[in-house]
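Objective 1b: paired records.
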Amino acid sequence: MSDKVNEIEVRGPSTLIEMALTNGADEKALEKLEKVLELQERWEANEAKKAYVKAMAEFKKDPPHIYKDKENKQYTSRYSSIDATVNATIPKLAEYGFSHNWQFGKTESGNPQVTCVLTHEFGHSESVTFDAPPDTSGGGSKNPIQQIKSTHTYLKIATFEAVTGLVSREINVDDDGNSASVCIGKKQVAEIEKKIKEVKADKGKFLGYLKVKSVEDIPLESYDTAMTALASKAGV
């Protein structure tokens, strides 16, 4: 079987089909060829996934350093911008055959939604999707477009960190540095509420640990921390 797969890989599916038709292959022969091609596709997909996992493991051995490069004068704190988080990481990802892109949409409730897709050069991709409400912080200084842009910036950083597995303790704020953290969206709220019930966690203590009054108030950048804490409670 391995010899057949290698032969297909070298010649290509279209060449094999052309050869079969030229040699007067009947319907049964074409069905067999189709099954072989399906086997090849599954084999190639599995090989691509293994290459992705191996490359990611190598990337994690020496991950890029994400640093605080901006100052938020309103909150007298420093934070890591999208430039420091993403642009500083792209060259390192490229060394191991990775590239990324973002896809934008919105939820049924109208929340901005961002998906970060990380693709390896052999074809395997993985993605993470987050959504959050429009960013209305800043005392009403943002117009609707700016609110969406600000949330998109948060979500681009959050999904990029999640799909690459990078960990940043800096607060992710938008480019103008004049807003607080965007909170998690309805999907993340539902996931956390479900997890709290599953592990029978003390909701009050859990919220106290995150320093928020409700699950809806959990900052987007604290989502992974919240889920990890609940997983630890479950002994996962």
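Objective 1b, second protein:
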Amino acid sequence: MSHVPVMLGEVLDVIQPRNGAHYIDGTFGGGGYSRALLDAAQCSVLGIDRDPDAIARGQNLVTQYAGRLTLVQGEFSQMDSLFTGRSDGVVLDLGVSSFQFDEAERGFSFREDGPLDMRMSKSGTSAADVVNTSDEKTLIQIIGGLGEEQQARRVARAIIAARPFSRTKELADVVSHALGPAALRFPIHPATRTFQALRIYVNDELGELERGLEAAERVLKAGGRLAVVAFHSLEDRIVKRFLNERSSAAPLASRHMPSARPKHPQTFQLLGSRPRTPSPAEIAQNPRARSAKLRAAEKLAAAA
């Protein structure tokens, strides 16, 4: 399956590509956003992805857009060190690439059996390492906190009783059995939340997002725009909090309210008071878009 960029029209509407500008696609993936930006104007794009396969797949686009597209393997939290200068726009799509989900050997999906891996960069601790070595308390924290699985204790105990694991299907079957027949009545697979939690943990996705938003704040020039597409509540909560803090007067800590968050300098102006969501037509065409939320903001001149 080819990767379908989510809310592409809405992202372009936010970024408003123009000739001579420079943009950063912090989650290059299948190259959908980069291609659209390059087609929309005579601009240049830096595409970043931690997955070496994504960089390899994108080399044909580098050739096609000679001199206008540069690809770098790395984390988007490093964008301000990977790009020297100031950017006119940053795009972040926080979803897992369709290529990663659809390639069983990457171990992201429970629908096709493969090695229990889930590492986007193919280095570091794998999902198998986590489930095979973590104690019950740690597994409960991961599955309950990052997967928002209400039966995290039950799942963690089942994992410990059945380990070691090396394959995705093994883990998915144990989780499904632990949650029982009642879980089959829900619209999502019983293992969805556990697999989501492990993927987020293995790749430190929430930490990467927090660091990436701060990097985007540093690299954007005055009038530069940030567009972030999030796919679940944990991500969206981080994006919403960051942009709200940077775009409005946060409460000042005082002796009357010593626990209040210190005021952050205003660096962004929100582009819309509410997140944009996919159209019904897009959801019908691409069901993976159904949970997407797009939040956007413009860098203020005083903060540049």
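The chain has two domains: 8-99+205-303, 122-202. The longest strand covers residues 220-230.
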